[in-house]
Amino acid sequence: MIEDIRIGHGYDVHAIADGLPMWLCGVRIDSTRGFVAHS
Fold first, then answer.
1. What is the pLDDT, as a whole number, of residue 18?
2. Considering its fold, how many domains does the chain have in total?
3. End-to-end distance of the chain based on CA atoms, in angstroms?
């Protein structure tokens, strides 16, 4: 039912480091640095 739907918003903060791939919203960005994160 519609009462079971919950919507929210937020943000994440991650460091950026050399030698990691950079992914943002499922898109790989050509960069020599990437986010220090996991999902």
1. 97
2. 1
3. 29
